[in-house]
Amino acid sequence: MPIVNGYTTLAAVKGILRITDGTDDTLLEGAIESASRRVDSFTGRFFYQTSQTVSLYAYDEYRLPLVNDLVSVTTLKTDDNGDNTFETTWTVNTDYVLEPRDHDLQSRPYRRILAIGAKSFPIFTVPMLAGAQVVGVWGWPSIPDDVEEATKLLAIRHFARYNAALGVVGFADMAIQVRAVDPDVRDLLNGYRRLGVA
Q: Cα separation of 194 and 46, whole Å?
């Protein structure tokens, strides 16, 4: 099975395990994809890129926090009269800017949209009525090295479970209990966890 939105490659994991044949490729690909989704679950975000149209709710006229990470904007529109039609198109660097401004230096995504011109984000009192619509690329600019390393560790562990009776991996006269959360994986990913949305 091909890996979908994986954070490492089959070749990288096979290299670590010193596997040179293709006998277990399907199992390894499944382990890599599963490990990638576990990273998503642990961090509360995803590191691949997807192009989507997303409706957003403004709580401030000049600041639009993003629930998900944003790589780039194709179009930003607002619904100014609450008719659920996004009729007003905004222009980057004239009507809005993306923050943080130094995201390129950190290789991190955008987290907010700020209104800088005459326009402002509409705020509606009607529940569930979005005031803004963003068409763009969501996710991360590139997969961070820590995320790739954590995915490798998780995939290798997942693959090893096929030979682990009752969660115990045996080596000669000793046995190692497989733990629920690998502390190295946790350390690698802690800096990427989303603990809440401002």
A: 11
Task: Please tell me which residue, 105 or 83, carries the higher pLDDT value.
Answer: 83
β-pair type (132-139, 63-78): antiparallel
Q: Find the radius of gyration of the CA atoms of the chain.
A: 22
What is d(CA 30, CA 174) in angstroms, rounded to the nearest whole number? 29
Cα gap 62→108, rounded to integer Å: 22
- Kindly state the tokens that stand for 50: 């997807």
82 compared with 6, residue with greater pLDDT: 6
- pLDDT tens-digit map of 94-151: 999 999 987 677 788 999 999 998 999 998 877 678 899 999 999 999 999 999 999 9
Q: Quick check: bond before 100 cis, omega within 30? A: yes
Long-range contacts of the stretch 25-28 (C-beta < 8 A, 24+): 26/1, 27/159, 27/162, 28/155, 28/159
CB 87 within 8 A of CB 77: yes
